[in-house]
Amino acid sequence: MSGMRMSMGLQARQIQTQKLAPRMIQSMEILQLPLLALQERIEQEMNENPLLEFQEGDTIGETELEAPSNDTRSEDEKELVVDDNSDNSEDFERLQNMIAELPSTFDDSFRRSAGGMQDDADRRHDLMANAQSRPESLNDFLLHQLAEMDIDDRIEKLAERIISVLDARDGGYLRTPLADLLPSNHTEADLVLAEEALAVVQSLEPVGIAARNLSECLLKQLAPDFPHFEEMQTLITSHLEDLAANRLPQIAKKTNYSIELIQTVRDELQGLNPKPGAAFMETHVPNVTPDIVLEQDEDGEYKVRLDDDRVPTLFISEYYRQRLQDPNCSTEEREFIKQKINGAQWLIDSIEQRRSTLTKVAEAIVEHQRKFFDEGPEAIEPLKMQQIADKVGVHVTTVSRAVDDKWMQTPRGILPLRKFFVGGTQTEDGDDVAWATIRIKLQELIDKEDKADPYSDEKLVDELKKAGMTVARRTVTKYRKRMGIQSSRQRKDWSLTQK
User: Which of 122, 246, 396, 414 could form a disulfide with 389 if both were Cys (CB 3.0 to 4.6 A apart)?
Assistant: First the structure.
């Protein structure tokens, strides 16, 4: 099993599907990287792969790169995917056919000039200096989601206990038996309740969290609309060990699946995340660098762009392309060049796919949360990652990785993309309203109440209903406590009653 990898299912790249699928699976590693980590990854890859070159004047971080002086880049350089199982003539014929379909360099039309970057430098520095510098922990992220659920208090407390023993360093697995989280004199009914609480935690994001073993973790990530849903279930449930040891013939014998089908399903399984909690391992980020910038044009429309000016435009060396065509090129050198070309093309494809996916996800988020940007935090709309996944046309785990540790510079400050995914309820008219909006309204009601006769929780329910928000009393009580607001008796100002 290879961690942190997932197939993107690209419709635009249906040709050469079998050749490109492994690279698309690996591209999830690139997708999950925030901007600074991406720059470090590119620098590392360029140090290790002599076939990677860059456009003159590009930079990585604050360092300007100097392109080779003999650069005679031609249009043919924009694609070079070498098939290890065919000769060079077919490779380059295939190259010509793929140029239009698979652009491997960045589209410079999205880039900003160096002058424009310099103009924004001070403004961005000031904004980032005021931004939150410590990402949300796994436990806090789960507790935040749990707080937005209207569930039985006993189940909620058990769910909180389960969350407390999850460790991001272990991938977010539940290693503690449920019975050990209960009192020593617990009953069978208590265990049933604990199972219900675990089901609640496992329904949270990231998908696959709080699993008790690898099989359960992967099964939780499956969806019935997967191309090979039943086969994936079978391999996860009964043949993971054989898969890990590459004992495909034994699997074929036991399942009557063809080797080709097993290989296909294995590739799809590699798209699942065996350690869903690992994305929260980082404990400190010195500075927040936004990957995305949101700006308003003259017509008031919001425009999303990636702030990746310091990511160099990569292409494959002209020199090594010519060496591969040279009849005097030795077999050993030819194999070396093929291997490095495949590695270079994978990186180029992965960076471009990261740009495309991140841009589409950000645009979908902005479109859904337009009221938030227009009116402020109280207008945030309920949003689940599955909604964005459906809109963009990717799996929900792709969205989860796309927003991991990514920040967006907006007219309302630099904000983590995860901030825009919130739970909610519905008004009597059937309109969605976010829990965050309810909390803001709740605070507003308490701020304006008569302190001589403050609102009881029942009265707060009535006042919220007048504002079009139907909320249960116990939910009001739960949020009041989480907001640090005392009960009506404790809020009462007795000095006002004596006047």
Answer: 396
- DSSP of 234-253, one letter per residue? HHHHH-HHHHHTT-HHHHHH
Question: Do residue 338 and residue 405 come from a single domain?
Answer: yes
What is the C-alpha separation between 357 and 180, in angstroms, rounded? 42
Measured CA to CA in angstroms, residue 64 lies from 104, 171, 467 at distances of 22, 37, 56
Q: Is the peptide bond before 224 cis (omega within 30 degrees of 0)?
A: no
Q: List Cβ neighbours of 495 (8 Å cut-off, separation of 6 or more).
A: none
CA end-to-end span of the chain, whole Å? Answer: 73
Same domain, 292 and 403: yes
Answer yes or no: do 67 and 110 share one domain: yes
Statement: the pTM of the whole predicted model exceeds 0.85: no
**Are residues 249 and 309 located together in one domain of the fold?**
no
Question: For residues 352 and 411, is the Cβ–Cβ distance under 8 A?
Answer: no
pLDDT at 16 over 70: no
Q: Which of 162, 159, 158 shows the shortest CA–CA distance to 173? A: 162
Same structural domain for residues 394 and 428? no
Whether the pLDDT of residue 30 is over 60: the answer is yes
* Distance of alpha carbon 184 from alpha carbon 399, whole angstroms: 41
What would the two tokens of residue 50 be?
A: 């002599």
Report yes or no on 54 lying in a domain. yes
Cα–Cα distance for residue pair 119/117, rounded to 1 Å: 5
Is 72 within a domain? yes
**Residue where a domain stops, chosen among 410, 444, 478:** 410
Q: Dihedral of the CA atoms 445, 451, 452, 457 (nearest 10)?
A: 40
Report whether 163 contacts 230 (CB < 8 A).
no
Q: Is residue 75 part of a domain?
A: yes
Residue 36's pLDDT is 85
Is the domain of 343 the same as that of 451? no
On whether both 366 and 444 belong to a single domain, the answer is: no
Q: Poorest-confidence range of 101-105, 131-135, 191-195?
A: 101-105
Distance CA 386, CA 322 (A): 47
Q: 126, exposed or middle or buried, with CB in 10 Å at 0-12, 13-18, 19+?
A: exposed
Residue 102 structural domain: 11-128+286-410
Give the position of tokens 């079978």: 234
Check pLDDT > 70 for residue 142.
yes
In this structure, the answer to whether residues 361 and 262 fall within a common structural domain is no
Tokens 């799809």 label which residue? 268
pLDDT in tens, 188-226: 999 999 999 999 999 999 999 999 999 999 999 998 888
In angstroms, the Cα distances linking 115 to 295, 310, 409, 421 are 18, 13, 19, 35
Number of domains comprising the chain:
3
